[in-house]
Write a structure and sequence with these properties.
The complex is a heterodimer. By secondary structure, chain A is an alpha+beta fold. Chain A contains 4 helices and 11 strands, in the order H-H-E-H-E-E-E-E-E-E-E-E-E-E-H. Chain B is built from 19 helices and 1 strand. Classes of the chains: A alpha+beta, B mainly alpha.
C-alpha cells in the first residue's frame, strides 16, 4: 500500500466513524406513533448506517486528490497513463454488488416482511376513507359512524384503512404512522396502521392526515387532525357521534 | 432593415401559424357542431396542431425541404452572421447554439419561477400568491426544467460537439435536426400561455383524472409536452444514426470519447421510451377533447394505467438527462487530470447496462399507488441493481483523478462537484428504492431534495462544466476563468445550503407540491428560501461572464485546454465543414501520458507535453 492509499484509507475510516457517530447520536425522526412507524424508522436508520461509509469514501478520495494532486496553473506534464489497477475493478464490482445484495435483503426484504406480517394480521377495526377535493370522509362501518372532522382511532388496535377517491387522485398519509397509500377513483386501496401512542394534532402536527398526491387548488390544506385515544374514550366518541347523528 | 430581413423567416412562420390555426380551429368548430360537446378544447387542439404545422413550414421547412416533395427547386435560405440563428439552418453547430441559448434562457426563466415558489414558501400561510398561482408556478418550473435537462445535452451539446468529436461534417439528418429545433419554440409559447388559460395544477407528471378535468391551461401543457416529446424522438433518431454512420475513419467504437457513448445511450432511450409518454399524453388529450374514458373510472377507465405508461418513459428519461451528465463529467475529469479515463471499457458497459436497466425500474415510483404489492419486490431489486453500474462511473471518476495532474479550471471544478453531489443523490435514491422507507418518504421533500441532487447537483453541474469547457470552442472567445470560479464556489455552496435542509424538511413531514405547510416547518423553509435566493443570484455571475466574453472577450485559441479529442483540433469556432482536412483517427482519445501517442492523424495532436499546438 503506497502512501497516498494509506492516507486516504485513514481519512475514510475517520470520516466513517464521525459519520456513524453522528447517525448514532442524532435522532432525525419526528414523533412515531404506530408499530409500522418503528419498522420504517428502523429501515431508515439501517440505510443511514450503510450510506455513511459510501459517502465517506467518495469524499475522502475526492478531497485528498484535489488537495494532493492539484497543479498550480497549467500542468506542463501528463499524469501516469493508468487505465486499470490490478484487481481493483473486480474488487470494486464485488463490493458494490455485495452492498446491493445486502441492501435488498436488509432493510429491503426484511422490512417489507415485517410490514407485511403486521398487515396480514386480522384487523381489529376497519375505517373506510374517501378522499375528495378537498376533504376526507371517514366511515366506521362497525360503529356506524361517519365524519369529515377528524380521524379518531383507538390506541393499540390494528386498523385497516380502505381508501378510495371520489374525484381525482389523492394520497392518504399520516406522518406519525409513516404509512401512505394513494386514493384512486374506481379502486379501493388498503393501508394498515397500529397506533401505539395516544395523542392529538394539538400535541404534535405529525398526527395529521395529509394529502400527498397533488389534487389541485386545495391540495396543501387537505389535512385532517388525527386523534389516537384509549379504547374507552373511543367508545365515548362513537356514542357521542351516534347521538349527534340521531339528533 | 437588416433586422427585419433577418427575422423574415420567423415572421413567415408566425403568419403560416395563424393561417394554420384558423384552418384547424374552423375544422374543429364544424366538427363540434355535429356533436353536443363544448368546442373550446377541440378548437385549441386542432388549431394548435395546424398552427404547429404552419409554423414549421413557414419558418423554413417548406423552402428548404418540402418543396422538393412536389418537384420544386429547394430555396436555400442559409444566412451568415447572427441572422443564421433565426433560420431553418442545417449546420449542426448553429442548431447546437440555437438549442443552447434557448434552453439556457429557459433554465434562467424556470429558475426565476423557483424564486417565486420560494418566496411563497418563506413563511406559512399565504405570502405572495394563492394556491392556484403556486400550483401553476410549480408545475411550470417542473416541466421547463425537465425540458432543459433533456434538451441542453441531447439538443445543445450533442448537436454542437458530436459531429466534431467523431470527426464528421454534420449530423446524419441535418434537416430533421433543424425540424427538431424549430418545433421547440411552440412548446415554450404554449407553456408561457398556460397562466392565461387558468394555469395548470398537475405538476409535470400530469396524472389523470386531474389532468383531464383541470382548466384549459392543462390541455396547453399536455400539447406542449407531446410536442417536446416529438422533438426528443427526432433528436434521438438523429444522434443514433450520426454516431453509427458518420464516424471518421479509424474512430472505432472502442475509441469513441465517453461523451459520445453517453449521448448514444441517451439517444437510444430518447428514441424508444419517449413514444410511451407520447401515447399516454395522447390518451389524456383524447379524454379531454373527444370524451374517451381511458382514465375515467366511472366509465371503465383506469387512472393507475397512466402512471405506468408515464413512468415507463419518465424513469428511463432521467437517464436521458443524467447519462450525458456522466459523459461530460468524465470527459472533463480526464482532460483536466491529464490521465487516461480509468476503466474506459467498463464505463461503456456500465452506461449500456444502465440503459437496459432503466426500462425495468419504473414502478418504484408506484409503491404507494395501489398497484399490487407483489410487484414491490422485483422493482426494488432492479432499482437497487442500478447502484452497481453507477458505482462503475464513480470508480472511473475517482480512478481518473487519482495520481493525476489536476488542473482546477472552472469546468474541472464543476466536474469534481458533480461527483460529490451525485454520491449524495445516489445514496438518497436508495432510501426511495427501498420499499419500507419509501412508503413514508414518497411525495415528500426528501424526494424533492433527492432529485435535485441527481438532476441539478449531477446533471446541471455537469452542464455547467460543459458550458465552461466548450464555451471557447463554440464562441471563439475566452470567458474569464476568475469569474467562472466565483460562479462555481458561489453556486456550489449556495446549492448545498439550499438542498441539504430539504432532506430534513421531508423527514419532518413536509410533503411536496404544497403552497402551505404546518407552522413548525416555518423556520426551515425560511432558511431554504434565503439560501435558494443566493443560489439563484449565482447565475447572474455566469450570465455576466459569458455574455461579456461572447461580445468582447479575448479570442480563444484552438485548444485552450490542450485536450486531445477532435473538436479541439480545429479552429475556434470551427469552420462550416468542421475540419479543413478530414481527420483520420489512429489512437485512443485519452492516451495522456503515453509517449508518442496520437488520437488523430490529419489534425495536429495535443499529446504529452505538446505545447506548440496552440
Amino acid at each position: 500500500m503506497n502512501r497516498h492509499t494509506f492516507i486516504v484509507a485513514i481519512l475514510w475510516v475517520v470520516l466513517t466513524i464521525l459519520g456513524e457517530a453522528l447517525v448514532a447520536i442524532s435522532d432525525l425522526s419526528p414523533l412515531a406513533a404506530a408499530k409500522e412507524a418503528a419498522i420504517v424508522d428502523g429501515a431508515f436508520r439501517v440505510l443511514m448506517v450503510l450510506a455513511v461509509p459510501v459517502v465517506a469514501f467518495v469524499i475522502a478520495t475526492l478531497a485528498y486528490s484535489i488537495i494532493r494532486f492539484r497543479i498550480r496553473g497549467e500542468p506542463s506534464q501528463d499524469g501516469p497513463p493508468i487505465r486499470s489497477h490490478g484487481r481493483l475493478i473486480a474488487v470494486w464490482f464485488a463490493v458494490t454488488s455485495g452492498l446491493t445484495v445486502l441492501m435488498v435483503i436488509y432493510p429491503g426484504i426484511i422490512g417489507m416482511n415485517e410490514l407485511a406480517d403486521l398487515s396480514h394480521e386480522e384487523p381489529d377495526m376497519v375505517v373506510k376513507v374517501e378522499g375528495m377535493r378537498f376533504a376526507w370522509r371517514f366511515t366506521y362501518p362497525e360503529q356506524n359512524v361517519s365524519t369529515f372532522k377528524e380521524l379518531v382511532l383507538p390506541v393499540d388496535k390494528h386498523v385497516r384503512f380502505d381508501v378510495t377517491s371520489r374525484d381525482v387522485l389523492h394520497s392518504f398519509w399520516v406522518p406519525a404512522f409513516r404509512m401512505k397509500i394513494d386514493a384512486v377513483p374506481g379502486m379501493v386501496t388498503t393501508v394498515h396502521a397500529t397506533p401505539d401512542k395516544t395523542g392529538t394534532f394539538g400535541d404534535d402536527t405529525q398526527l395529521r392526515l395529509q394529502c400527498t398526491e397533488l389534487c389541485g387548488l386545495g391540495h396543501s390544506i387537505m389535512t385532517v387532525p388525527v386523534r389516537v385515544v384509549e379504547q374507552s374514550e373511543f367508545e365515548a366518541w362513537v356514542a357521542q357521534q351516534t347521538q349527534t347523528a340521531r339528533r | 432593415m437588416a433586422v427585419l430581413t433577418a427575422l423574415r423567416p420567423i415572421g413567415k412562420g408566425l403568419a403560416f401559424a395563424v393561417v394554420g390555426f384558423l384552418i384547424g380551429a374552423g375544422a374543429a368548430t364544424l366538427l363540434t357542431t355535429i356533436t353536443d360537446r363544448p368546442a373550446t378544447q377541440p378548437v385549441i387542439t386542432l388549431g394548435y396542431l395546424f398552427a404547429l404545422i404552419g409554423w414549421v413550414l413557414g419558418v423554413g421547412l417548406w423552402d428548404n425541404w418540402a418543396r422538393e416533395w412536389f418537384g420544386l427547386p429547394v430555396k436555400n435560405t442559409e444566412a451568415f452572421g447572427w441572422p443564421r440563428y433565426f433560420r431553418f439552418t442545417t449546420d449542426h453547430k448553429t442548431i447546437g447554439v440555437q438549442y443552447l441559448v434557448t434552453f439556457v434562457v429557459l433554465f434562467l426563466l424556470a429558475g426565476l419561477l423557483s424564486v417565486l415558489m420560494r418566496l411563497e414558501l418563506m413563511a406559512p400561510g399565504q405570502t405572495i400568491m394563492g394556491a392556484k398561482d403556486f400550483n401553476t408556478t410549480m408545475s411550470l418550473h417542473g416541466i421547463i426544467m425537465i425540458a432543459v435537462a433533456v434538451a441542453t445535452f441531447l439538443g445543445g451539446f450533442a448537436n454542437f460537439t458530436i459531429p466534431l468529436l467523431i470527426g464528421a461534417e454534420d449530423v446524419a439528418f441535418p434537416r430533421i435536426n433543424a425540424l427538431s429545433y424549430w418545433i421547440v419554440p411552440p412548446v415554450a409559447v404554449l407553456l408561457i400561455l398556460t397562466p392565461f388559460f387558468g394555469g395548470f395544477d398537475t405538476g409535470w407528471t400530469a396524472y389523470p383524472p386531474l389532468a383531464v378535468v383541470n382548466a384549459t391551461g392543462g390541455l396547453l401543457f399536455v400539447l406542449a409536452f407531446l410536442t417536446f416529446g416529438v422533438s426528443s424522438i427526432l433528436g434521438g433518431l438523429n444522434f443514433l444514426a450520426t454516431i453509427i454512420m458518420l464516424r471518421a475513419p479509424g474512430m472505432t467504437w472502442g475509441r469513441l470519447p465517453i461523451f459520445v457513448w453517453s449521448i448514444f445511450a441517451a439517444a437510444l432511450i430518447s428514441l424508444t421510451a419517449t413514444q410511451f409518454v407520447a401515447y399516454g399524453l395522447l390518451m389524456i388529450i383524447l379524454d379531454r377533447v373527444v370524451g374517451t374514458a381511458f382514465f375515467d373510472a366511472a366509465r371503465g377507465g383506469k387512472p393507475l394505467l397512466y402512471e405506468h405508461i408515464f413512468w415507463f418513459y419518465s424513469h428511463p428519461a432521467v437517464y436521458i438527462m443524467i447519462l450525458p451528465g456522466f459523459g461530460v463529467a468524465l470527459e472533463v475529469l480526464t482532460h483536466f487530470s491529464r490521465k487516461p479515463l480509468f476503466a474506459y471499457k467498463y464505463v461503456v458497459g456500465a452506461i449500456l447496462a444502465i440503459v437496459a436497466l432503466s426500462f425495468i425500474v419504473w414502478a418504484h415510483h408506484l409503491y404507494t399507488s395501489g398497484m399490487p404489492s407483489y410487484l414491490h419486490l422485483p422493482f426494488m431489486i432492479t432499482t437497487e441493481i442500478i447502484s452497481i453500474p453507477t458505482g462503475v462511473i464513480f470508480l472511473a471518476g475517482l480512478g481518473t483523478i487519482w495520481l493525476g495532474r489536476l488542473w482546477l479550471t472552472t469546468p474541472m471544478l464543476f466536474a469534481l462537484a458533480f461527483l460529490f453531489n451525485f454520491v449524495i443523490g445516489g445514496v438518497t435514491g436508495i432510501f426511495l428504492a427501498d420499499v419500507p422507507t419509501d412508503i413514508n418518504l414518497q411525495d415528500n421533500y426528501f424526494v424533492v431534495a433527492h432529485f435535485h441532487y441527481t438532476i441539478m447537483g449531477g446533471e446541471i453541474f455537469a452542464l455547467m462544466a460543459g458550458i465552461y469547457y466548450w464555451f471557447p470552442k463554440i464562441t471563439g472567445r475566452m470567458h474569464s476563468e476568475a469569474l467562472g470560479k466565483v460562479h462555481f464556489w458561489w453556486m456550489f455552496i449556495a446549492y448545498q445550503v439550499t438542498f441539504i435542509p430539504m432532506f430534513w424538511a421531508g423527514i419532518q413531514g413536509m410533503n411536496r407540491r404544497v403552497a402551505d405547510y404546518t407552522p413548525e416547518l416555518g423556520g426551515i423553509n425560511l432558511f431554504i428560501s434565503v439560501a435558494s435566493f443566493l443560489l439563484a443570484a449565482s447565475f447572474l455571475v455566469m450570465v455576466y461572464n459569458l455574455v461579456r466574453a461572447w461580445v468582447r472577450g479575448p479570442k480563444a485559441s484552438d485548444n485552450p485546454w490542450r485536450a486531445r479529442t477532435l473538436e479541439w483540433q480545429t479552429s475556434s469556432p470551427p469552420p462550416l465543414e468542421n475540419f479543413t482536412r478530414p481527420p483520420v483517427v489512429v489512437g485512443h482519445p485519452y492516451d495522456y501520458g503515453v509517449p508518442g501517442s496520437v488520437h488523430s492523424a490529419a489534425a495536429p495532436a495535443g499529446g504529452a507535453g505538446d505545447k506548440e499546438t496552440h
